[in-house]
Design brief:
298 residues; binds adenosine-5'-diphosphate
């Protein structure tokens, strides 16, 4: 079962064009939608999750027309929004049981079996009787995954999964996501390149409401082979380098700026070749895509 998005557009009442003719074909597995803040990721996620209407376009999950058969889609959907509004005074077990009822799992025994299995899967069995108000950020995200997985959904949407997690929680959370069945379509939106690098076999980059790249991360990295160069500079010479070369990114290493440059050949004898990575793909595409001014309407 695949998710097909065709020419979806959305302009908010204040004139912001958040999505412009977005088309994507998303196969089962982990798909990363990468883009900076304001690119339109949440708008697209919320549209696919039937939480808001586009102005134009169509979305299909297998046989389901997402925009007209909302109930059918919701039965097959697990959605983990950026902020899960949890009820602080309720235990994880009680709330999960409640959501399982809403999802149509009627029998009490069946529900208990589902809840037990999900708590175990997200490693919250020991915390099942704790009120959610006492959960850490990472525990809340894991609880969110348990909610999203109720009823074995065919489509799982995860919006900005690692925002606000500390490094250890982030690793646990990504490991958990990576274990989700390969048969479901898992769509994760993020502005963090590493989330996509670590999890996704397919990806798209969105900027200013437009898809500017769609493909496999590994292939995109391979395409940059021989075109990425790096050099340690000084803070004083950095602006000159930015003027002269196609600087993709600057990172401090031991307090000194290291620039990465995109160039078909060695840009200058002072540069060394570097292995391309997904950040280089991201920054190359972001620079070469159309400018945001061209896609926003006042
Ligand atoms: P992302 O999730 O990539 O940060 P969003 O989809 O939240 O992007 O936002 C895309 C653009 O639409 C931004 O310019 C944002 O300010 C604007 N936007 C989002 N929601 C609304 C809204 N309800 N009303 C008006 N503008 C909005």
């Amino acid at each position: 079962m695949k998710l097909t998005i065709d020419d979806v557009s959305k302009t908010y009442p204040n004139g912001t064009q958040a999505l412009k003719d977005v088309s994507l074909t998303i196969p089962p597995g982990m798909f990363g939608l990468l883009g900076p803040n304001g690119a339109g990721k949440s708008t697209l996620m919320r549209t696919i999750a039937t939480l808001q209407e586009p102005d134009a376009g169509s979305v299909r999950l297998g046989d389901i027309d997402v925009l007209t058969e909302k109930q059918a889609l919701r039965k097959r959907l697990g959605y983990l929004p950026q902020e899960i509004g949890v009820y602080d005074n309720v235990t994880a077990e009680t709330l999960l049981d409640h959501f399982a009822t809403l999802k149509g799992i009627d029998g009490r025994d069946e529900r208990r079996r589902v809840v037990d299995a999900l708590l175990d899967r997200v490693n919250l069995t020991d915390a099942r009787d704790q009120e959610l108000g006492g959960y850490s950020g990472g525990m809340k995200r894991r609880f969110g995954i348990a909610v999203a997985l109720i009823g074995d959904p065919d489509l799982i949407i995860v919006d900005e999964p690692t925002a606000g997690l500390d490094p250890a929680e982030r690793v646990r959370f990504l490991n958990l996501l990576s274990e989700i069945g390969e048969d479901s379509v898992v769509l994760l939106s993020t502005h963090i390149v590493a989330d996509v690098r670590e999890l996704c076999t397919q990806m798209a980059i969105i900027r200013g409401g437009e898809i500017i790249f769609e493909g496999e991360p590994q292939a995109a990295i391979g395409d940059l082979e021989g075109q990425i160069w790096h050099k340690t500079v000084t803070k004083e010479t950095l602006p000159d380098h930015e003027d002269q070369f196609d600087v993709l990114s600057t990172k401090l290493v031991a307090g000194r700026p290291v620039i990465r440059v995109h160039s078909d050949g060695r840009p200058h004898s002072s540069f060394e070749p570097a292995d391309p990575d997904l950040e280089d793909v991201y920054f190359t595409r972001m620079k070469n895509g159309r400018s945001p001014e061209q896609v926003s309407v006042a």
